[in-house]
Each structure stands twice: as C-alpha cells, then as structure tokens.
Amino acid sequence: MQDKTILEVNHLSKKFGNTDVLKDIDGTVKSGEVICVIGPSGAGKSTFLRCLNLLEKPTSGEVNFEGTDLTSVDDKHLVNLRERMGMVFQSFNLFPNMTVIQNLKLAPMRVKHVSDEEAEKTGMHLLGLVGLQEKAHVYPSSLSGGQQQRVAIARALAMNPEVMLFDEPTSALDPEMVGEVLEVMQKLANEGMTMVVVTHEMGFAKEVADEVWFMADGYILEKGKPEDLFDHPQNDRAKDFIGKIIQNV
Amino acid sequence: MKKSVKTIIQIGLLLLALVTFTAWQTSNASEADNALQRVKQRGELIMVTSPDYPPYEFQVNKNGKSRIVGMDIDVAKKVAKDLHVKLVIKSMNFDSLLVAIQTGKADMAIGGINPTAARRQSVDFSKIYYSGGQSFLINSSDVNKYKSVKNLKGATIGAQTGTLQYGLAKKKIPNSTVKGMDKSTDLVLALKTHKIDALGIEKPSAEAYVKNDPSLKMISSGYHLDKNEVGAAIAFKKGSGSLVNAVNKSIDQIQKQHLTDQYLASAGKYMKVNTVNTSMWHYWTYFAKGVEYTILISVVATFFGVLIGVVLALMRFSKQKWLRGLAISYTEFIRGTPLMVQVMFVYFGIGVVINIPALISGMIAVSLNSGAYVAEIIRGGINSVAKGQTEAAESLGLSKGDMMRFVVLPQAFKNIWPALGNEFISLIKESSIVSIIGVTDLIYQLNIVRADTYRGVIPIFVAMVLYFIMTFALTRLLNHYEGKMKHAG
Lengths: 249, 489
Hints:
The structure holds two protein chains of two kinds.
Chain A: E1 5-16, E2 19-30, E3 34-38, H1 45-52, E4 60-65, E5 68-69, H2 75-82, E6 85-88, H3 100-111, H4 116-129, H5 145-157, E7 163-167, H6 175-190, E8 194-198, H7 202-208, E9 211-216, E10 219-224, H8 226-231, H9 236-248
Parallel strand pairs in A: 3-8, 3-9, 6-7, 7-8
Antiparallel strand pairs in A: 1-2, 1-4, 4-5, 9-10
Chain B: H1 3-28, H2 35-42, E1 44-49, E2 52-53, E3 57-62, E4 65-69, H3 71-83, E5 86-91, H4 94-102, E6 108-109, H5 117-120, E7 123-131, E8 134-139, E9 156-160, H6 164-172, E10 177-181, H7 184-192, E11 198-202, H8 203-212, E12 216-220, H9 227-230, E13 231-237, H10 241-256, H11 259-276, H12 284-316, H13 321-335, H14 339-349, H15 358-384, H16 387-395, H17 400-430, H18 442-453, H19 458-487
Parallel strand pairs in B: 1-5, 1-6, 9-10, 9-11
Antiparallel strand pairs in B: 2-3, 3-4, 6-13, 7-13, 8-11, 8-12
C-alpha cells in the first residue's frame, strides 16, 4: 500500500499581501506515510499545512488529493473532499457548546448522515482509543489541554479520513501533557494512518516519521529519512537549525 | 468597503425612496367621488376621533366597560342614523386625525376641529355644527393675577399642538411663550403644576374642567374671530362632496332643533358619573388591557425582530454582493429614522396601498425596527466567535449552513445574550410609540385614564410601576437562561 499517492503538491505558492510565505513547494505523500514538517518559526510550515485542505487558498500551484486538484474545484465539491482529510489544530478548537460525544457525532451525522446510534457507537469507540470514554458527556471546558487535544484527534478520526493533518498539536500544551498526545499519534501511525505533522517535537519526528521535510523562508530546503536528516543534514540552514536544537536538548 | 457594494447600497436607498414617493403619489391621486356610495355599500361609517377632549369626546368607564361618549359622538351617531349605516369609532392622537382621513383610514374625522383656511386646503369640511368659542383655563389661585385676557401679556400659555388654540395664542397674546403638548390632560397637569400660566382651550372643554376641578377657573378669550375659527366641523378626504352634502343635511337638522344643547347636557351627565370613582383600582381593567397589548406587541416584535435580525446578519456574511448591500441599506435606513416615523409610515403610508389595522401596523413597524438592531448585535456575536471554530467546522466538512446552525450561532447567542436582553427591554418600552396610531397599549390606556379621571399624576405612576414589573420580570427570565448557558460550557 506504500505506493498509492494520497497528496501531491506542485509548485505551491502563497502570498499574504506582498509577502511570499510559500515559494514553489513540491511534495508527495503516499498512503500510510508519516511526514513530519520541521523548521524555524516563520518558515511557513503551518501555512503549508493549511494549504493542503485549502483553509488557506494557494496563490498558485496545485494540491492534488487522490487525483483531484483542490484549487480548481468549487466550494461544494471542496466540502466533500475536506471531510476525507482530518485536521488537528494547535488550539484544539473543540466546540465549547457541545459535550465531548456531541463534538464527535456532529460531523458524521450532519455530513455523512449516519444514524445517531451508529455515530454514538463509533464515537465511544474512538474515545476509548484516546482513553477518554469516561469524559463522553462532559463539556470541553472541564478537560485539560491534553485531554482536549485527544478529543480533537478522535473528532477528526470520526469522519474516517484518508489523511490526518496535525498543525503543531502539542505546542499549546503544558509539558506534562505532551506525552499523552504524542502517544495517541504514535498509535495512529502504527495502525497505518497517513499523517502530515507540523511539529517541534524532534523526538517524535525521529521515531515515528517516514520522512522529514525541513522548511525555512517559504521553501522546503531538504527532505529525507529522519536518521539522514537529523544526523547528516546537507543544507546549511538545516545544519544550523538541527545544531541549535540538539544543543538545547 | 468595495465600490460595488457601495453602489448596491445607493441603489437600495434609492429604491426605498422610490417606494415612499410612490406611496405618497398614490395618496394624492384624485379619484372619482364615490365617498357616499362606498359608505352605503359598506353599511358602516368609520369616524376617527381623539377621545381626550371632554365634553366633545372622551372615554367613560361604565359597569367595567369602556365607551367613547360626548357631543361629537352624538353628532356622528345622528349622521350615521340619517345615512342608515352603522357608526364605527376609531381613536388616535389629534395630530393624526386629518392624516387618517387623507389616507383613507376613516371616512370622517370629528373632534372639535375648527375648519380654518389652512386646513381647508388639505381636507373638505362639513357645515359648522357647533360654535363654542375660545377661552383660557387658569389656576384658581391666579384669579386676581389674570383677571382678563389682557393680563396674559408675556405669560406662558399652553395649547394642544396642531390645534387652532396654539396658533391663536401665538398670534393674539403679545410677548407670550406658547408651549405645545399632545394631550389636553398633560396640559391641564402642566397648568396645575404651574409649568404654564394659562391654557388655551375651547369653551365647552374649559367649562367641563372647571366643573370637575375646583382648582381651575376659566376666563374668556375676548378674541374677535371668524366663525371658521370658533366653530367645529366634520372633516372629510378631499373630493368627498357627495358624503359632505349628505352629512350637511343632518347638520342642518341639528342646528334647527338645537340638538347640541341636548348632547352637551348628556355629556355633562357622563362626566358626573365619571368623577364618582377615580381610584386607580376602579380602572384596573384599563391598565390590564394596556399591559396585555404592550406584552402582545413586544412578544410578537421580539420574535420577528430576532428572525429578521438573523436573516439580515447572515446576509451580511453572504458571498452575494447584492445581498450584503441590501442588508446594509436596510440596517442603515432603519437605524437612521425614528421609530415614530416608521410606525406612522407603515400605518398611513403603506396603508394607502394595503389597509393594515393599527395593531398589525404597530407590530410590523416595531419588528422591522428591532430587526435592524438585532442584526447588528448578532453580527457582532458572529464576529466574536473564534476563527478556529469555523476552521474546525470547515475541516470536518460541515456545510456553511450547519456550521452556522450548530457551531457559530449557538456560541454567538451566548456571547450576545446581555446585549440582546437590553434590546428586548428597550423594545417593551419603545413599543409605547404605537399609541400614536391608536393601538390600545399601556401608554394609550394611561392617557385615557388621565382624561377620564382628571387626575394627571397617579395614572403615570401606575403605568411606571407596571412597565417596571414587566421589564424586571424579563430581566429575571433572561438571567435565568444566561445562567443555564454558562453551565453548558
């Protein structure tokens, strides 16, 4: 299954006003692959990830999702394609007006029109997967950051997506909660989920990623297997960045 | 703002102006004179009056039932009887009487109206059925100060706005300051509290007050006036010659048989009945009816106001420029014009095209008005929902409609609840403006009780307490739901 291409990005550029945030980015994500995107802040990592499901509209270039160019489809079609790409945000973005299980049931019931019982069953199963079944009927405000992020992952999984996009999922967490979220993500990776992860967790990247992409100044400057990129970076900016990080560890 | 949106707003405002203009045009269009025929076909003669002017017309409470009585009413009854039709009485502010007949809300207006030359330009008049003469009311304590009208030089004189007395006081009393108010009951109160020194009023009215209130005295005006300035006549829409002629036949009989003396005498009897029991408890049914209508209007207007508000707010977020432009035009126009004008426009203006009853007109105007304010509040609420919420909803593949319904609006409503509550409370209070078109809300009933009892202050106090009870109950209700929402996240 490693061969099937899920996402393919060609000559992707994004401008905010006159600022070039992304410049001519290419990349391919294959089924079952875990890609970690690393780099200094301001490199354009989050913008790149948000271009993948068109939360940001690229200025030019193509984003092919299973053979369809997302930049060329109409809004209605885009909604249909988006439901097959899960996204996890830095700030969780759970719906505070709904209980945990309602958060998980909303999209399957409204978008996929599954029955209440089925949504409930799938929801409870996924909450079990992230270890939060007993919190099903509380509101998100009573959960810790780590718990909220695990619910957010379960919510994205409830749509049974082809690929999961993670936008710095642990950056807003207190340090003691980072582990529980990474653990869930590792479990997902082990089960064969295709994932694109923007992260500062180098340990996770090293251990879980199939490929690491190093971004700086709006370019992907280097791609490689984690052991190659972390131990023998070729690009000067990558060398500098990895050197600083290792010093800090 | 983008230029195209601006253009659309301009077009929207232009259209509104056009609708207004067309309505005005229609109201001025001359029609063939079928006034009499219409009344006969209908079997009803609809009259408007302002029943706060004893003994001409006023409300009495007999056996718990409210009735409009007075000399004018007896005149109208005689007219209706002679035409072999039923008399239907509508009541509204004196200011609005002539407008009401011009816009076809009624066949005739009667209410001690003096057929002056200026008024003759906009309406037709019957013959004069009664000549009362002008006089002034003063406080008994001032009897020595204002022995005659000459002493009023430089005084502050009150008069009902839109009446002949108002213009006369300005013209004929040197150096006077003239204060105008809507209701003669307010004016009497102003006199008794020395806000004005004298009150210009028709002689029969003045006599009625003096009879009922020993603290008031009457002095003659001493004006030398044309008979058109002292007499009372019935007003009709221009071009109603057939109806005017028919009515004049009745008036001839009234004059010949001196029927007005008889009518005045029976009005006087009613006024005696009236002063027997002026306790507020005696009038509780009046206040209850007022509260009922105020609540009815408020509830309906709140419901439709929120509905209109949500629709307008969503239009503001639409991708279609013309929808956005339309919503902006509407909000700006409604916020930029007084509710009072809107109420009158819906009733009189739109009424030219479709005849909408006063109560419905009031509800429509207040709903339309509230909708514009609610729209702005909701727009603020939608903007207050974090961007991450819509992104999360989008990333899950939710449609725009579902996103609004399940994610954005519930959170927006929670954020704007206090502001919405504010709007609902002011709506209860502002709905009082519908009294000008004769909707029997609390303010309207308050004025009737004041006219009825000759007591100026106590009814105001009662209405104040009633309004407070309503708004306070609403506040408690809103707080209860706010607490519930807080609990839910």
